[in-house]
Amino acid sequence: xxxxxxLQDVVCDFGSFRAxxxxxxxxxxxxxxxxxxxxxxGKTTILRMISGFIDPTAGTIRIGGTDVKGKRPNQRPTALIxxxxxxxxxxxxxxxxxxxxxxxGVDKATRRAKAEELLKLVDLPGAADKMVxxxxxxxxxxxxxxxxxxxxxxxxxxxxPLSALDLKLRQHMRAELRTIQKRTGVTFIxxxxxxxxxxxxSDRVGVMSQGRIxxxxxxxxxxxxPANGFVASFVGENNIFEGTAxxxxxxxxxxxxxxxxxxxxxxxxxxxxxxxxxxxxxHTILSATPAAENSVPVTVEEVAxxxxxxxxxxxxxxxxxxxxxxxxxxxxxxxxxxxALHASFDPARAALxxxxxxxx
Amino acid sequence: MxxxxxxxxxxxxxxxxxxxxxxxxxxxxVPNLTLLExxxxxxxxxxxxxxxxxxxxxSNYLKVFNGEIETSVxxxxxxxxxxxxxxxxxxxxxxxxxxxxxxxxxxxAYFMAKVVNPKTLPTLLLLLFVPLWVSExxxxxxxxIILALKGPLNWIxxxxxxxxxxxxxxxxxxxxxxxxxxxxxxxxLFPLYNAVSSLDTNQIEAAEDxxxxxxxxHWRIVMPHxxxxxxxxxxxxxxxxxxxxxxxxxxxxxTSQWFTQTIDQWFKDAxxxxxxxxxxxxxxxLCTVFVTVAMKLFKVRLSDIAK
Lengths: 360, 307
Fold this sequence. Notes:
The complex is a heterodimer of chains A (360) and B (307). With 360 residues, chain A is α+β, with helices and mostly antiparallel strands. In chain A, α2 packs parallel to α4. Chain A is elongated. Chain A starts with a strand and ends in a 7-residue tail after the last strand. Chain B has a single domain, classed as MetI-like fold (Orthogonal Bundle). Chain B is built from 13 helices and two strands; from the N terminus they run ααββααααααααααα. A two-stranded antiparallel sheet of chain B has the order 1-2. In chain B, β1 and β2 form a beta hairpin. In chain B, α1 crosses α12. Chain B is globular and about 75 Å long. The mean pLDDT of chain B is 89. Chains A and B meet through β6 and α2 of A and α8 and α9 of B.
């Protein structure tokens, strides 16, 4: 069982501070949807409005098509997993998991059986009678998921639940969460500031900044076709050029910069607006001779070995830093520090983007 | 102790330690031991003190069983020694005071810890503390005036038509209970407030999110977490109430008698310090036993309270 969620022009003000500004999003039933953004961007506020702890100042929230205005968290078909998990330390694990059922008046034997069943689902059989303090971080995580699943929510809301775990465990739990989501078919709404997490797990991602949803798209589109400079910079690295857009033709536009005339994709709706040119380091190519177009001379300043790839940091004649990433597969020659090279990129791989959301 | 000497130097450390030792030994241990010692000796004319009649015995303690009176509780009539009755009533009404304090303090503690804006909290605390600036005697008398037959409470209730003739409020133990609750409620409030404010608000929200109605959130999450606070508040209120002399003396009625008043009468009216001491120790020991049993029943450990 799962339900979709619609946010229609949702606004949330805290005093004079607008935490969420006209959020519109339609999350499909059974979808794994992430809100991605820096802290203070309003993503947790959105989550708390969906779960019912905060009332929106304006706008409508629908869960499974029903307007949930005025409904308390205990009346909504949602289950929230808190950032600090908020497990009940005075109850054994099974009572934690069965707490929601206890509140619904389910008898003890059924509760216990259900708790055992869920512990199997989250790969923690035999932990029923332990106390919360006896579990490791990853195990607590699973208990929190089981506790939320026990009430058979139509929507699971997860507020950065992996942020307290170490890197290896976090990567493991990502896969685990995704599996549990697929197995149960419940709609997952996931809040994170970690772009890797959002991209790896989600069906779709909503990138937020300063209370506004900047872009909603699947992870590939977010990375490959960011809607604006904020999305491009928040999700991944960029080489950014400042300049003025010139004549456009065939979806591409000329872009005059201090480094010379460049060409890049023009994103619909940005004509005549101030834009910058964004190109990813992995799409920036270094060569000894100038390329036919979009070529900028650079001097290599630093070569950083990162394992799977090598970051080459250079600087243009005007002092602009440029980074290129080379795959560490032996196909590219690693330049020396101080080498004079040319950085170039395919115009189709570069985009002219406004800084932030320009809808308003 | 080495730490103390390093911080304050040998001179000041000696003074501090001597003061603490004086306070402990001269003001706590010696008077109590004196009372304990004389509680086992008979009350004798001065000439006989130290003589052949001055021997140790439990006879002072056994005096609580003297003088039976007829009593009826819940329609059952039986005979009970008058001082035992006083003692049991003292314990009973101290429990009533403790429960009343909890019922008053818990919502307030929760409100202060979890609901009120932290900015207004200092004002609230100040308002709670203001009454403490006035002496306990005056506060007890204030209640005596408020509850008096022609006092302001009856005047207001008559005025707004809740009652049609004045109510005698200071009847039986009612005045004593009101006075004790008022005097000791803060001793319940602050441990409760500390305990509740240490609860992670996410726990409350998690419980609500999982479908718990408000009273179940309190019963299953907040109260179990606050148990050490409830226990320490209850022990304090109970012990202070059972040991209070002032409030029962001022707000007592003709039919109320607190065990401390009985002790006081042995001291001041009978001038029999020996029996008075025995009664005082009875009260101390039995209250301690009572509290220990109650803590066992509610599965609270002493170390929980110390937290």
